Amino acid sequence: MGQLNSEWDALRARHAATKDRTILSLFDASDRAGAFTASTGDMMLDYSKTNIDAETRERLGELFTAAQVPAKRTAMFSGHPINDTEGRAVLHTALRNLDGGPVKVGGKDVMPAVLDTLARMRAYATEVRDSAITDVVNIGIGGSDLGPAMAVEALAPYHDGPRCHFVSNVDGAHIADTLRGLDASTTLVIVASKTFTTIETMTNARTARAWMQEHGGDPTKQFAALSTADDLTANFGIPAERVFGFEDWVGGRYSMWGPIGLSLMIAIGPKAFDAFLRGGQAMDRHFQAADWHENLPVLLALVGIWHAQVCGYASRAVLPYDQRLKRLPDYFQQLEMESNGKSVRMDGTAVEVETGPIVWGAAGTNGQHAFYQLLHQGTRVIPCEFMVAAVGHEADLAHHHKLLVANCLAQSEALMRGRSLEEARAKMVKAGFTGAELERQARHRVFAGNRPSVTLVYPTLDPFTLGQIIALYEHRVFVEGVILGINSFDQWGVELGKELATSLQPVVEGTAPASGKDGSTAQLVDYILRHAG
């Protein structure tokens, strides 16, 4: 920790020395944009609109080296149990290792089983796509829902299979609204739960099974499971040939690359799903091979560390300028906040810096008419991460995409450039204002500027590119976690609320007393019971 502490101190000193400098002034150097851009294949990351200069970048690189990220990266890809609170390897990368050679866990090559499961998925997806099935309902929650739901929507132009629907919330409205209007005789239900005990998922699964039985479907033929609990899936009535499992070294929020992605494979077909996997694999190779100065996941992580831990910016906005990526901020929210929302280091000691920022966002241009006011003129600085394709899918609506791109680039420029009081006064003079009213109106039109952003650009959002983007952010989270000294691959913070919900269920049902509960909880239960009759 001694060396790491000195690196943190150096970065804080660097921030103090440069915080009053404008980002725009860095562009006085003619090579600013090119020097603070990195690429892999056709994907480019521009981080020049941040207050990171060459010296700051080198300081961040020293932090990267002092935290021994390269060695821990090697350990992850080699199958070592880097998730040490659970004693597990972290090998979601093996699920997209289509032609990368053996991957060993405990001395055993896991790739034959991974590729066998993938082959079974391809065969089953083809069978479903060739059948009378018109709709697929994926029932899961968390990583078993956010990833495939996001990806299915993102790759809508590639859909040539059944329609896909997603149910996650235990609120009965979610499954009721989803099943309404579907034909039970042509609907496939996929139950996604590794343990097959997740209470929200299994409650929804039983409801879906009852619906299918009541409306002319056949649950014995129209249910599949994504689970490792063979005994529980069999008891539920799902035969082994329609059960697809994955190992404990695949975390839920990293599981879309394997069986959890079955709904996506059914929607876009095995060939397009393979392209998605190959995009992820390409980013894996770049992450392992590229020098940190040119390494997209490393650079994105170091920018994140600079903004969140050094500058103290508490949140991060993810802003995809693509309507089909509207669920991506939600997906990255789980990826980042469940992974790095920790306060204890690997050794059990308290973390000495702030950890995961609040991640949020929405698709542009919708967000511009919602929260961009705060981004531009609010009192908090919120680093932004823009992403946009050079070319859209709707060739006959190319003018729409050009307007979209113009808005994306304009927003990052406006955040950086801002508008001075003098510029605002000049505008108000032209508008006919004078005296005190001119001054008042001008001050309302001042933009502080100097607000940092990065922009990720790529040719078109296709399966390969989506795979690259997801893997890029996965590795970014890993690098940040290693630098912070935390375990990015457990999620004990999810457990306590689930335990208390289980104990509260009979109280809310009125079959157990609220004794022992705090006064607020007991009062709320009393209100609910009275109004529920």
Low-confidence stretches: none
Biggest β-sheet, characterized? 6 strands, mixed
Shape: globular
Radius of gyration: 25 Å
Mean pLDDT: 96
Give me the number of helical elements. Answer: 21
Helix content: 40-55%
| Extended strand count | 13
Structural class determined from secondary elements: alpha/beta
* Strand arrangement, major sheet: 1-2-13-12-10-11
Fraction in beta strands: 5-15%
Distance between the termini: 59 Å
Summarize the structure.
This protein has about 525 residues and is an alpha/beta fold.
What does this structure look like?
The protein has helices at 2-18, 32-35, 54-66, 69-77, 111-129, 146-154, 172-179, 199-214, 219-222, 230-236, 262-268, 270-289, 296-310, 328-340, 372-377, 398-417, 421-430, 435-444, 463-484, 495-509, 519-532, and strands at residues 37-40, 43-46, 104-105, 108-109, 135-139, 163-167, 187-192, 223-226, 243-244, 315-320, 358-361, 384-389, 453-458. By secondary structure, the chain is α/β, with parallel strands linked by helices. The strands form three sheets. Strands 1-2-13-12-10-11 form a six-stranded mixed sheet, with helices on both faces. A hairpin with a 2-residue loop joins β1 (37-40) and β2. α6 runs antiparallel to α14, α12 (270-289) runs parallel beside α19 and α13 packs across α19. The longest helix is centred in the last third of the chain and has 22 residues, at 463-484. The protein is globular, with a radius of gyration of 25 Å. The protein starts with a helix and ends with a helix. 44% of the residues are buried. The mean pLDDT is 96.
